[in-house]
Each structure stands twice: as structure tokens, then as C-alpha cells.
């Protein structure tokens, strides 16, 4: 066992005015030119403060190291301060080092040191932790002779490439299934023609939740539906359950108590998310970011309306607003102005039941494929860990 810092040298080279490509680190592609990942313009006006990475250097994202955001630079380039640049010392194969850093064993060593790592702050509502080289250098790692490092790296390159190919095939299958799913939803409404009736003609009650619910969050009580509970591909409410406990003198919530069959829309973010209330969510309260639409069920079936809003045409209305033009939120008047196709109630029920059944079958296939991907990723991680910790003899495996 050897200290990681004995195998790697931290590099912090800055060359103002140097003409080198801007690089990024991808969890799947490693170190690549930023232009391969995005066409968005760079944020900084000057690259003078950026670090230089040389061909063969190892680069990792300090805030995403545990998710595998690292790789070997295949050309000289520039990277931002979010990245650390390391150079393997003599008799070190950088491929072996990358596999070592991606092993679950190495990740567990990072976790064990997290109490001593300063927090990186909030990013998109998620607490992040920076892991600098000064932390990595203290980890005791298994560093065999260079020939064995190369043998292990060759073995893992070959085996992980096979697993990665399998994962890519499964991801393509999921994409095909999702396209098929959308086609099924769209096709169910084709015979009805263009949406011609505004939702306002069927609405009995329309509102959104009041503010200040965070003051009433509790470990038990009544359910509180938030915008994150709304799905994007079906009508079933999902996600983490938040409870609220209202004092006896608070009556504002009674206006937004959910009833079976209520149609829900996201109105401040994730525009396009729709759900229909049923089961344990009946009697829940709703947040200010969600519109509660109670329809005349004798004339418009809420699941029919909900499924139509998940068609390409329905999503266009929600994402651009009923009156047209890009919006970052929907007003209640926008909800009233949404249009649905005309159909008898019997036909509405037939279409909704058909879509419930057909999408459930496709969703089951997607879920099974996602489980296969997760198993493949677990297999990949276990294989890497076994190889770099000496649990498998790569000479026999070859």
C-alpha cells in the first residue's frame, strides 16, 4: 500500500494568452473538448486563469468525483478551477489510476474522509462537496509494478468496453420505447381531429395553492402535493411524500383540498407535467406551484383531458401558453384557454382506458431495461474494484 500522493503530482500551470482548446470532463467520455459536449458560449471572457492540462494528465471534477467525472487528457488543453489536474509519476499507468479512482473501494475511502472536507455549497438545490487533491493524496492505495498495472488496465479496458456497449444498447432501447410510447399516445387522438373546445367550458373549480406551507411541514399529518410529485409521462402522482400539520385556526388550506379525479398542472416549473388525483392523494393539500382543475365529469373525463395534455399537441400548448409565445409559467387563465378535442364521454373513457393499458405495458418494458442497466453498472463497478484490489487474477481471467 502506498499513499496516493506518492503516485501523483498536482499540476497547477497557468499560461496567460496560450492558444489551447477548452476541455471538459464527462462521466462517460472522460476528458474531451468542451465543444463536443455543448455549443453554449464559454462564460469567462478570458482564459488566462484557466489551468493547463497536458496529454497524459489526469483531470477530475472536484465536485463530481464520486460520480466518476474524471479522465485522461488525450491532448493539451485548458480546464476551469472546478477541475484538478494530476500527472502520474514514473512507472504509473494513468489508465490504472483512473480505474482505481472509479472503484467502489476508492469511493468508500472518499466517503470516510468527507467529514474533513469543506462543503462546496448549494448547486441546483443539491448539497455538494468539493474533493481536492489534498484529500486524495492521503489515501493509501494498492499500486503494483508497472507491468501488472498495464495488465490490469488492459483487462479492465476490454471488459468495461463490453459492458459499456451493452449499456449503450439498452439506453437506445429505452429511447425507442419512449418514442413508441409517445406515438401511441398521439395516435389515440388522431381520429378526433384538432383540439377545438376550450377547457373553460368544462371547469367547475380552478385554483392554485396558497403560500407559506413550509411553516406547516411535519413528520405526519395530511399529504402535501408539491410540483415534484407531478409526472411527465403518465398521470400517476409520484415521488417523496411530504406531510403538513395545520393549526386549527388555519383555514386557507381548505380551498385546495384534493378530490378524486382532480386534474393537476405544473404552472411555475416543469411545464408539461400533469396528473390526475386518486388513491391516497385524495384529501391532500396542493402547493402554490400547482393548478387544481376540477372538471364537470358528466361532460369531460379528467383522464381523457390529462392524456391529451401529454400528446405532442397538448405539450405544445402547455410549454408555449394557450395564447402562444414562450413562458416560464402559466396563469390560471392560460389553463382555462387550453383546448381539448371534442368526443362523447363514452369515447373519452375508451381512449383513456386504452392508454392506461398500453402505456403500462411499455412502462414495464422500460423499467425492466433500466433494471438491466443498473445491474450492468453494478457489475462494472464490482469488476473494477475486484481487479484493482487484487481479488481477481487478470492473468487467469485473460
TrEMBL record:
Keywords: DNA-binding, Endonuclease, Hydrolase, Nuclease, Restriction system
Subunit structure as annotated in this protein's UniProt entry: The methyltransferase is composed of M and S polypeptides.
Claim: Hydrolase is one of the keywords in the record: yes
SUPFAM superfamilies noted in UniProt: DNA methylase specificity domain (SSF116734)
A Pfam family reported for this protein in Swiss-Prot or TrEMBL: Methylase_S
GO MF terms, alphabetically ordered: endonuclease activity; hydrolase activity
EC number annotated for this UniProt entry: 3.1.21.-
Source organism (scientific name): Nonomuraea insulae
Protein name: Restriction endonuclease subunit S
InterPro entries: Restrct_endonuc_typeI_TRD (IPR000055), Restrct_endonuc_typeI_TRD_sf (IPR044946), Type-I_RE_S_subunit (IPR051212)
All residue ranges annotated as the Type I restriction modification DNA specificity domain in the record: 255-368
Enzyme class: hydrolase
Family: Belongs to the type-I restriction system S methylase family.
Amino acid at each position: 500500500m502506498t499513499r496516493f500522493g506518492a503516485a501523483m503530482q498536482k499540476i497547477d500551470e497557468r499560461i496567460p494568452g496560450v492558444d489551447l482548446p477548452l476541455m471538459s470532463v464527462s462521466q462517460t467520455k472522460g476528458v474531451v473538448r468542451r465543444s463536443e459536449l455543448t455549443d453554449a458560449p464559454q462564460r469567462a471572457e478570458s482564459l488566462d486563469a484557466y489551468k493547463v492540462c497536458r496529454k497524459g494528465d489526469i483531470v477530475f471534477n472536484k465536485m463530481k468525483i464520486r460520480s466518476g467525472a474524471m479522465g485522461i487528457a488525450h491532448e493539451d488543453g485548458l480546464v476551469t478551477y472546478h477541475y484538478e489536474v494530476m500527472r502520474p509519476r514514473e512507472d504509473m499507468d494513468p489508465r490504472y489510476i483512473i480505474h482505481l479512482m472509479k472503484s467502489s473501494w476508492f469511493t468508500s475511502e472518499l466517503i470516510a474522509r468527507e467529514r474533513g472536507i469543506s462543503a462546496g455549497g448549494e448547486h441546483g438545490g443539491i448539497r455538494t462537496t468539493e474533493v481536492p487533491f489534498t484529500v486524495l493524496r492521503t489515501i493509501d492505495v494498492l499500486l503494483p509494478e508497472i507491468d501488472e498495472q498495464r495488465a490490469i488496465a488492459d483487462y479492465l479496458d476490454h471488459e468495461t468496453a463490453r459492458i459499456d456497449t451493452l449499456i449503450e444498447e439498452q439506453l437506445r432501447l429505452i429511447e425507442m420505447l419512449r418514442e413508441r410510447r409517445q406515438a401511441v399516445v398521439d395516435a389515440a387522438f388522431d381520429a378526433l381531429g384538432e383540439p377545438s373546445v376550450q377547457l373553460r367550458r368544462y371547469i367547475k373549480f380552478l385554483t392554485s395553492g396558497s403560500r407559506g406551507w413550509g411553516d406547516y411541514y411535519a413528520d405526519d399529518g395530511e399529504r402535501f402535493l408539491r410540483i415534484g410529485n407531478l409526472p411527465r409521462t403518465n398521470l400517476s402522482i409520484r415521488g417523496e411524500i411530504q406531510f403538513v400539520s395545520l393549526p386549527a385556526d388555519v383555514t386557507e388550506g381548505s380551498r385546495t383540498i384534493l378530490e378524486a379525479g382532480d386534474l393537476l398542472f405544473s404552472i411555475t416549473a416543469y411545464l408539461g407535467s400533469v396528473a390526475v388525483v386518486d388513491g391516497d392523494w385524495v384529501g391532500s393539500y396542493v402547493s402554490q406551484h400547482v393548478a387544481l382543475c376540477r372538471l364537470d365529469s358528466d361532460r369531460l373525463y379528467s383522464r381523457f383531458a390529462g392524456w391529451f395534455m401529454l400528446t405532442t399537441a397538448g405539450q405544445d400548448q402547455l410549454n408555449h401558453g394557450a395564447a402562444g409565445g414562450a413562458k416560464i409559467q402559466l396563469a390560471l387563465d392560460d389553463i382555462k384557454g387550453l383546448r381539448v378535442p371534442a368526443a362523447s364521454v363514452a369515447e373519452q373513457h375508451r381512449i383513456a382506458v386504452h392508454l392506461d393499458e398500453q402505456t403500462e405495458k411499455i412502462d414495464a418494458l422500460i423499467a425492466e431495461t433500466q433494471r438491466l442497466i443498473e445491474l450492468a453498472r453494478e457489475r462494472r463497478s464490482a469488476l473494477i474494484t475486484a481487479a484493482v484490489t487484487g481479488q481477481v487474477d487478470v492473468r487467469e481471467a485473460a
